[in-house]
Amino acid sequence: MSCIAGIDVGTGFTKAVLVEVEGEHPSGETLILGRGITKTGAYLEDAARHALEQALRAAGRDRDDIVYVAVTGFGRYAVGFRDIQITEITSGARGAIWLFPEASAVLDIGNQSTRAIRLDARGKVSAFKMNEKCAAGSGSFLMRVAKYLQIELEELGEISLRATRPQPISSVCAVLAETEIINHVSAGAAIEDIVRGVHNSLADRAVLLLRRVGAGSDGRDASPLVFIGGVARQRGMIVALEERLGRPVRVPPECEFVCALGAALLGLHRWRKFRSEALPPLTSP
Amino acid sequence: MRFAAGVDVGSTQTKAVILAEDGGQSGHPARSSDHVGTPPESPRIVARAVVDTGAHVSRAAEQAFHAACREAGLDPREIGLVVGTGYGRYKIAFGHAQVTEISCHARGAHFVFPETRTVIDIGGQDAKVIRVGPEGEVRDFVMNDKCAAGTGRFLANAAEVLGLRLEEIGPLSLQATDPVKLTTVCTVFVESDILSYLAQGRRPEDILRGVHLAIARRTVSLARRIPIEPAITFTGGVARNVGMVRALEEVLGLSIHVSPESHFMGALGAALFALDRLKRRAEAGAAPEERGWQ
Lengths: 285, 294
Known about the structure:
Chain A is α/β, with parallel strands linked by helices.
């Protein structure tokens, strides 16, 4: 049974998603067969291979079943066994609109970059902005905060929801903000109030980026924003965004796999097109 | 003999300097134009001290001040006047006055190198470029205190990632033969940049040279926002890093002055302001000022 692989080589983690080619899902949706995730590290192609092997094991398939490999993320050019490379803007938008067809904007916060994407009525990307130069507003900031406060990264989101008096984090730099956090801790501020302050600071940065693509909403747009990437797992972050945007924020359950899924879907589309045109699929150079 | 102190409460370290001046020279600030690198004879530095600032800013200020008094063999009550500077200057309970670190660095740099027209000050968490007039007065300045890129913090992180001590990285960077090109100046992201270079087998000295050049380029682009006029004096804790001095000289295409007192330049400037004030009071015949801790 043939399947298509979508691999997202991110700065923190590499994700792989396998989708079915033959026989569609009973609901009419393409079936997601399996997922894999691994730390990216310095060897990008190895990370891609590991994530893919994991996804194959989860799907109960082997390498020969894969007919097309679409790769996205910052490390996409390092993956020699790819059939096509897709920007993480295109793949993120594709994955988000497949999960939430009514979406008009996408926010993707990963380990080292934040992307704001506006979608037109047909679900195509009409504008995007990204920040990949600075750690403020990125997932790596949260990782450092978790490490400093000695809290598991996964717990931050829940802890933040218990905040009663969020502490201000005024700095626009993740490193300088750490000093502020240290000061809050030594002044006796509650951990949940500090964590919420961090989420608020991240949300402020994200809203600025969304406004620059005309997706700030500011209460005038009730269509949902789809929030993807690993940071979307943090519930405190979702609340902070909803407070600021005045529009619903939707988060898919497997939020860190959305770009890999989008890549797989775009790969499937392309593979079908080739097949219908009776052309052989593109192979990597 | 009269004594005055300057306490510079920086984001990372707190520095104190005690100056002594012969009472007979009051009203005639001693300044020579022929020395290089070392402060003139009068007023002279009799003690200096440095402690980590940490979270308890006022305690750090007190510790640095008392350590300097001990080194000078003086009772704190013998110090006629204390001026505070640095980001934590308002937390100095025992000080008489506060002066911004901009003015203090300009004053200190001018005291040591009277020909100074531009001061580059790189501290633990900020970077400043100050244009100085012929009398050591501040004409203009630009600063980056919004982001740790291009500050001592950036270098400290780089050292940590490489498992080196902060004082090792400057000299090591000078042994580079093929410097790396960093893709980021973000203090957080540079860690993964460094790790990937290491994984690719690049040598630590080449990575470090790339790190120093990246900061130098950032500092010089900050400096270009105000006209850079020689002579340039480099102050702040990062000025002790020889790799940074060379990188700045390379990017600027100019040689720069660095004093052995560079780390204490802000505290020195504050002590000079303290001495001025002390002399003015003495000339006016006023009673000594009261201090919080007396």
